[in-house]
């Protein structure tokens, strides 16, 4: 899988840098706040929202429970409607298929619908290596592409940019990629959108090959579904002669009727709308209408690895709404780039490790990129218990390091604690020693917590990192065991009741 941005540092390092960018934090706080408010308003209109969440989760779970059967049915129905179906085990195979189709038609450019899965496999990079330009047509994706940037949000890839920055990008870069931006371009949203529309129109009209993903794939009818808000998707899906759709195998929905709860959950959870402005569905080839050659690439790329995880497999229910990002206090302060993946935020913190496995320092850091506050689960339209999966993945990271040749300092410390706690006499001696240590620590590093509780300050040595962000209560001068023995002895001497 190529879901990690090559060269990105582990989350703590990347997050520290992001936290120092005040403009980034302002942009993120404003944008996520607006989206949260819109979502809350439209969700509040639905009396049975929780029942709808349960229904959506059940649909996705049913599809995952018998995924092989539904995928085979999807293939049969697509082929019956004139589409060509390809199977790709990983990014390399998927990219080779799409590049081969484009080269077979002799094109030097393709137009693309916004697609997380094509970002996941770095399709644009593979096409560029073959001399084929891949033009992003979603407004936010266009901003990211022209700016030589990386996406930082599932729904709004350019959420980290404000409109003044977008204006500068358009003025500086549009001319080198096609029709230039007007010289008198302002940062008014309507003017920016008009400049993007004029820039993209010529690409839509001349492109022979279009590339898309799919929000859902209905196995019963062999139907692919794309939902979007700008209309660029409709242009990419209908104008080119050839359409190639790269679809993750988890996007399957068993029946047409089961789309109902998902199409009601998605727009409210993502854009804060009651319904998507554009919902496009297609099944293979329709003579004389739309693309006359349709290819569907069904991609694994780590999804079967995630499916095999009994706790983590629920992450494959994800419908890419990004609601978890918009409520996450960690994401709001660090942005998406800190996660080092096209899947940022809480869902990225579980999806990337599930699909890639442990062993990479950057990926292993992601399950810890959370306060476990639970807000992500509360807003997830398909009830993915992200905190549960995060804790589960943390245990996997820890277990993976148990086999290291040289044990970590933490592992050595935990073994020492286990040895001490396993014997009452050793524990009693440790308690006596901790009382002495507590008095020394209070004198040397002592601070006082609210309420008059004693605490040690930042400890020296390897414990300094842990205590730099935490108040560490100083051990009491007398342990509970010693107190109990002393009180009990006094009680017996006085003959009173204990």
Please provide a brief summary of the model.
This protein has about 500 residues and is of the alpha/beta class. Helix content is about 50%, strand content about 10%. It has two domains: about 10-305, Rossmann fold (3-Layer(aba) Sandwich); about 410-495, no CATH class.
Mind telling me which CATH architecture of the largest domain this is? 3-Layer(aba) Sandwich
The profile of the biggest β sheet is: 6 strands, parallel
How far apart are the termini?
65 Å
Mean pLDDT comes to 90
Sheet-strand content, in percent, reads 5-15%
Shape: elongated
- Could you tell me the radius of gyration in angstroms? 28 Å
Structure annotation, total helices: 23
Task: Tell me the helix content.
Answer: 40-55%
How many separate domains? 2
CATH H level, superfamily name of the largest domain: NagB/RpiA/CoA transferase-like
Low-confidence stretches: 448-452
What does this protein structure show overall?
This protein has 498 residues and is an alpha/beta fold. It folds into 2 domains: 11-305, NagB/RpiA/CoA transferase-like (Rossmann fold, 3-Layer(aba) Sandwich), CATH 3.40.50.10420; 412-494, no CATH class. Helix content is 52%, strand content 11%. It is built from 23 helices and 13 strands. The protein has helices at residues 11-19, 22-43, 49-65, 67-80, 91-104, 116-120, 123-129, 139-146, 163-177, 189-206, 232-238, 259-270, 303-307, 323-327, 329-334, 345-356, 361-365, 375-379, 386-402, 409-421, 424-445, 464-467, 480-494, and strands at residues 84-88, 109-112, 133-136, 209-212, 216-218, 223-228, 242-248, 252-253, 278-282, 293-299, 446-448, 454-456, 472-473. The strands form 3 sheets. A 6-stranded parallel β-sheet has the order 1-10-7-4-2-3, with helices on both faces. A 4-stranded mixed β-sheet has the order 8-5-6-9. A 3-stranded antiparallel β-sheet has the order 11-12-13. A hairpin with a 4-residue loop joins strand 5 and strand 6 (223-228). Helix 3 packs across helix 12, helix 9 packs parallel to helix 10 (189-206) and helix 16 packs across helix 19 (386-402). The longest helix is centred in the N-terminal third of the chain and has 22 residues, at 22-43. The chain is elongated and about 100 Å long. The model is unreliable at 448-452 (pLDDT under 50).
